[in-house]
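STRUCTURE:
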């Protein structure tokens, strides 16, 4: 289900007043749910790697970051 499909429909009398707190809470709940699901999926994907393999992408990303920011090895 797409994120927009889970959002409550706005009625003709709904101008955003009074229910803002409820909507904010619902929005935060949906964000927490989506982030949790994303992290669970990433964990499942990475679970096939051993510790050394899992560390390689982090090392490569660190090198790229240093190169783009002009760090120790980047000009």
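SEQUENCE:
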């Amino acid at each position: 289900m797409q994120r927009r499909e889970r959002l409550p429909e706005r009625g003709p009398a709904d101008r955003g007043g009074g229910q803002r707190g409820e909507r904010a809470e619902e929005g935060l709940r949906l964000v927490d749910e989506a982030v949790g699901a994303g992290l669970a999926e990433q964990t499942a994907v990475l679970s096939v790697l051993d510790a050394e393999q899992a560390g390689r992408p982090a090392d490569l990303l660190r090198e790229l970051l240093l190169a783009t920011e002009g760090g120790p090895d980047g000009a």
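REMARK: Residues 3 and 31 are 9 Å apart (CA to CA).
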